[in-house]
Design goal:
It catalyses: ATP + H2O = ADP + phosphate + H(+). Keywords: ATP-binding, DNA damage, DNA repair, DNA-binding, Exonuclease, Helicase, Hydrolase, Isomerase, Nuclease, Nucleotide-binding. This is RecBCD enzyme subunit RecD. There is one protein chain. The protein has three domains: about 5-125, Arc Repressor Mutant, subunit A (Orthogonal Bundle); about 140-395, P-loop containing nucleotide triphosphate hydrolases (Rossmann fold, 3-Layer(aba) Sandwich), CATH 3.40.50.300; about 400-510 and about 565-625, Rossmann fold (3-Layer(aba) Sandwich). It is built from 27 helices and 20 strands. The strands form four sheets. Strands 7-6-8-9-5-10 form a six-stranded parallel beta sheet. It has a five-stranded parallel beta sheet with strand order 11-20-19-12-18, with helices on both faces. The chain has a five-stranded antiparallel beta sheet with strand order 16-15-14-13-17. It is globular. Bound molecules: adenosine-5'-triphosphate. Adenosine-5'-triphosphate (ATP) binds near residues 179, 199, 203 and 242. Adenosine-5'-triphosphate binds near residues 196, 198, 200, 242 and 393.
Length: about 650
């Protein structure tokens, strides 16, 4: 890069912000890389560094109207800090049009529609992208549009006959029966989305959808290839377990009318998306892509809210056009850690419905269910293929009421439910760290007691029980650092358990240490997010192994072979997605209010199946979090609808 005095102020300010921890080193370096590619201007550097910084915060692009208005809030900076950086590049354009004019003149920027020579920045309307994200959004939008629009011939009468068999006529919990409607609608296109909160029956429904596809496929049924997948190993194992259970109950009920055990037997294990696509070490590329597509007819993907933009693009690229994709997930949960809020974007119309006359007619013919008038409209082709399940079957109690209030942004109601005195809910504000630690000592006691007693009977069965007990309780944090973060709490909990004689922490590895895998490791077969417990190896005295529970199955790896792990008495809410604990404790930090959002609190609450405890620095902090929505800038919705 050529030294340029006019840019000196920008670089100085960039360094100050980096040292203050407000700007990633990468964002400054990215601006430097852009500058190195050709003639540069201060505003190009400013836009590049902001774009890169926003990418690190999950946004897939930078809206130029936001840049013109000043993106301090998006960046989580004060207005003064933004002005200090922007001031080094003044005078700046006052609106998006002005920004477009300036950026178009830069050789590092490709304006969509103009001659493309692989510039790293892409300007699509008023959105500035890193090329990779623009390409991914384009791919996802195009694939989803084509799939949603590809209407299939459906024998509506046969579908209805089978749906009446598969869904019992016992008193319906909701009218219309959205589960039945979801099955009917999924028959029509090569993509369908079934969204809903915890316990609304997404897995229950998809098991019936599989049975329905099997039933109406006739002679083809025996050849149908079905794949189950999820973003994490744990979610995949849970999906398989729930589908097997639902199909086995169905098989008992429908009997010889449909050989469902044959379907279960042919389904195989559920896999992580990484493994399904054929991830390879040291490369982002997968073995499967449009040149080597997946060998499937029906692909079910659970916990789709955790699927980030790049992964969704890879998945759609690898899926043959003839295959049906069914996405299951809760659109209101936290978006993926990486850039994009794909499920949220795809489900934009889910609440309102927006069903066309043709959809209303088809849905009635194929399911016998009438979609109420209020859900009629003129939604996109994807909206016609999306169904929201609205009634929770195992989440109606106080935890469910709390989740509903939080999701609706009703701070008063959330406070009332939390203070209702119901033993399933507890709320501590103005607490100290030692209160959380004490709760952790009590919560983890059951598995530690079992460890102290030692193995009795068959070793695997004992390990399973220890793991199940450990999985019944968890501390969830909003942040990693500090005394209210994962790191501080893991340390404090470990120390206290040690002091109480419940653990003996000799070094890095010790009996009873819970760990979370932080990177996929194909050598040992463990994946990012997997959680295991360190226990003595019964066959090699003095040696430690980490045991993982996948569904009902126990598997283990020599502790010293696991290189990317961290202690997991406490974990982030992000990492807890796809898991459920009998008692979940959510710890909100004392400062860093800006990262506390409604989606984070909702995701934390919905991890609890029987008991939920909240620690918040003040009562006001909870209200502020509930009112703060996660916002991720993306152009995906516009591309799908456009
Ligand atoms: N129509 C129904 N009739 C009877 N039981 C149902 C029905 N729908 C769901 N259930 C039951 O409700 C429970 C929750 O269903 P399911 O696990 O499918 O929900 P989910 O939306 O997949 O939940 P999660 O998001 O937690 O995975 C299960 O025990 C299931 O058997």
């Amino acid at each position: 890069m050529k030294p340029d005095d006019s840019l000196a102020g920008f670089w100085l300010e960039t360094r100050r912000l980096t040292e203050a921890g407000m700007l990633r080193r990468l964002s400054g370096a990215f601006a430097g890389f852009i500058a190195s590619l050709g003639t540069t201007t201060p505003e190009l550097l400013l836009a590049s560094s902001v774009l890169s910084e926003l990418e690190g915060r999950g946004h897939s692009c930078l809206l130029l109207t936001d840049l013109a208005a000043g993106p301090a809030a998006l960046l989580g900076w004060s207005e003064e800090d933004w002005q200090a950086l922007a001031g080094t590049c003044a005078p700046l354009p006052k609106n998006a049009k002005g920004w477009i004019a300036r950026l178009c003149a830069c050789e590092q920027v490709w304006q969509v529609g103009e001659f493309d020579y692989d510039q790293p920045l892409v300007l699509d309307g008023e959105r500035l992208y890193l090329r990779r994200y623009w390409r991914d959004e384009r791919l996802v939008a195009q694939a989803i549009r084509e799939r949603a629009g590809a209407a299939r011939e459906v024998d509506a009468q046969a579908a209805r006959r089978w749906l009446d068999i598969l869904f019992t006529s016992a008193r319906k919990a909701e009218v219309p029966d959205w589960q039945k409607l979801a099955c009917a609608i999924a028959l029509r296109g090569s993509v369908a989305i079934i969204t809903g909160g915890p316990g609304t029956g997404k897995t229950y429904t998809v098991a019936r959808l599989l049975a329905l596809l099997f039933a109406i496929a006739g002679e083809e049924a025996g050849r149908q290839r079905i794949a189950l997948a999820a973003p994490t190993g744990k979610a995949a194992a849970r999906l398989k377990q729930s589908i097997d259970k639902a199909l086995s109950e169905l098989a008992d009920r429908v009997g010889a009318a449909l050989p469902l055990r044959e379907l279960t037997a042919r389904m195989g294990a559920a896999r992580t998306l990484h493994s399904l696509l054929g991830a390879r070490p040291d490369t982002r590329a997968f073995a499967h892509h449009r040149g080597n597509p997946l060998d499937v007819d029906v692909l079910i993907v659970d916990e789709a809210s955790m699927v980030h933009l790049e992964m969704m693009a890879s998945l759609l690229d690898a899926l043959p056009p003839s295959a049906t994709l069914i996405l299951l997930g809760d659109k209101d949960q936290l978006a993926s850690v990486e850039a994009g809020a794909v499920l949220g974007d795809l489900c934009h119309d889910a609440q309102a419905g927006g069903y066309s006359d043709a959809t209303l007619r088809f849905a009635f013919e194929a399911s016998g269910e009438q979609i109420p008038e209020q859900y009629a409209g003129s939604g996109s082709a994807l909206a016609q293929q999306t169904v929201m399940l609205r009634h929770s079957r195992r989440f109606g109690g106080p935890i469910g009421q709390l989740a509903l209030a939080v999701n609706a942004g009703d701070v008063t109601r959330a406070g009332e439910v939390l203070r209702s005195g119901d033993p399933a809910l507890r709320w501590f504000d103005h607490a100290h760290q030692h209160h959380v630690v004490q709760l952790a000592v009590d919560g983890y006691q059951p598995y530690l007691e079992l460890l102290a007693e030692g193995a009795t009977g068959e070793h695997d069965a004992w390990v399973r029980t220890v793991l199940q007990r450990f999985e019944a309780f968890r501390i969830l944090c909003a942040v990693r650092e500090g005394e209210w973060g994962v790191e501080g709490l893991n340390d404090a909990i470990g120390q206290r358990l040690d002091a109480a004689g419940l653990l003996r922490r000799g070094g890095e590895w010790y009996v009873g240490r819970p760990v979370m895998v932080t990177r996929n490791d194909y050598g040992t077969g463990v994946f990012n997010g997997d959680i295991g417990l360190t226990l003595a190896d019964p066959d090699r005295p003095g040696s430690l192994r980490v045991y993982f529970l996948q569904g009902e199955e126990v598997r283990s790896v020599l502790a010293t072979r696991l290189r990317h792990v961290e202690t997991a008495f406490a974990m982030t809410v992000h990492k807890s997605q796809g898991s459920e604990f009998r008692h979940t404790v959510l710890v909100l930090p004392q400062d860093r209010g800006s990262i506390l959002t409604r989606e984070l609190v909702y995701t934390g609450i919905t991890r609890a199946s029987a008991e939920f405890t909240l620690f918040s620095p003040t009562s006001a902090a909870l209200g502020e979090a509930i009112l703060r929505r996660t916002h991720r800038t993306s152009g995906l919705r516009g591309m799908i609808e456009g």
